[in-house]
Amino acid sequence: MNKDMNTNQKIKSFLKALLSNAGTLMLIIGVCTAVIAIILNWETVTYEFGRLIKVLMPFVFGVVLAFLINPMVNSINNWFYTVIFKGRSEKLCKYVSVAVSYLILLSLTVIVIVYIVPQISQSVKELTKSLGNGYYYIVNHSREIQEKYPFLPMREISRFIQQVVPADVFGYGTDFAKFVFPYLYNISASFISGLVNIIFAVVISCYIILDKNKIKKEIRRMIYVFTSKRNAPTIWSTFCECNRIFNGFLYGKSIDSLIIGILSLIVMSIIGLPYAMLLSLIVGVTNMIPYFGPFIGAIPGVIIYLVIEPKYAIIYVVMIFVLQQFDGLYLGPKILGDLTGIKPLWVIFGITVGGAYFGVLGMFLGVPTVAALMHILSVIMEKKMKVKMIEKLEDKSS
């Protein structure tokens, strides 16, 4: 009798365990089935996924734009609220701040298109002509150069230049625009065809910024609903801190790079170095990359000036070194502070891995990404250590 009761209890416990794990089992079966279906229909899945990405692009760009312009909106909103609105009409102040921020962004875009792009185009044409003259001079007068500078292996240099740089690149001379503008035309056509998506992205970003408090509230509610009551506050604070790291780094580094680019343009114009606008733009953009950015931005200028006039290269290197020291010792810490809080080794790791997998954009975003991951790992480790310390204390007390 007891044996039958034990058997019945075992059967009941087995069925109970089976029913309690039925949901997990069905989930595993569903995931495995979905993975097999994706593998068997890979081409169709990739095609449909590409279509989905195109449909969602306005939303993706809208989120990115809102993320980038949000710090500017916050700064303008705080100033308007305290100075102009004097603590009244909070909702109207927010709408005005968003409108002013987008007007500033639009004005900067117009300035770039009207004033900066033509100067860069002219610099590219002049630079192509100068480099083309230098190219043909080295190739056609290698013997004369060898006689004048016997220590130079001109035959090898000439052969290497002809292998690396095809002659037809410079065959357009001052009409280099004919070589480049077809590509620019294609880009322009793509831009015009995607104008509707850009308008949608701007509208979406406006709604995201205006409703950001509601969005944050919903994200917080989701965290508290789908995680345990004990872990929810930690997850929410970690999410806020990662957002602060990303936002602060991108916004601060953008301002820092803009200042460095403007200073480079001013100094190069005062000194009289050619192609100031083009090279200052390169310096400003590459300065977004921590540590290596100034050196990466200096390489094109050094090569150009070595071909045109070697003394310009020396002056340019000294200028970049001074700007880099100013940025590293004063401007960068003043603007950024210690936003990332990670060691140089992890900065180099973020730049290397990000650049290897995602190119220049990965080099920009690698550092804040690694900083956010390190913060998450630090929170998890501290929590685990705290639990282990409690266990040790409990063991001692017992």
Describe the protein's architecture and organization:
The protein has 14 helices and no strands. It is mostly helical and 398 residues long. Helix 10 (232-271) runs antiparallel to helix 14. The radius of gyration is 30 Å and the shape is extended.
What's the short version?
This protein is mostly helical and 398 residues long. It has helices at 2-20, 22-40, 42-84, 90-140, 142-148, 154-164, 176-193, 195-210, 212-226, 232-271, 276-286, 293-308, 310-336, 344-397.
Q: Which stretches of 5+ consecutive residues score pLDDT under 50?
A: 392-398
Order of helices and strands: HHHHHHHHHHHHHH
Give the helix level as a range of percent: over 70%
Structural class: mainly alpha
Say what oligomer this is: single chain
Shape: extended
Strand content: under 5%
Number of helices: 14
* Rounded average pLDDT: 75
Largest sheet: none
Alpha-carbon distance between the termini?
Answer: 43 Å
Overall radius of gyration = 30 Å
Number of strands: 0
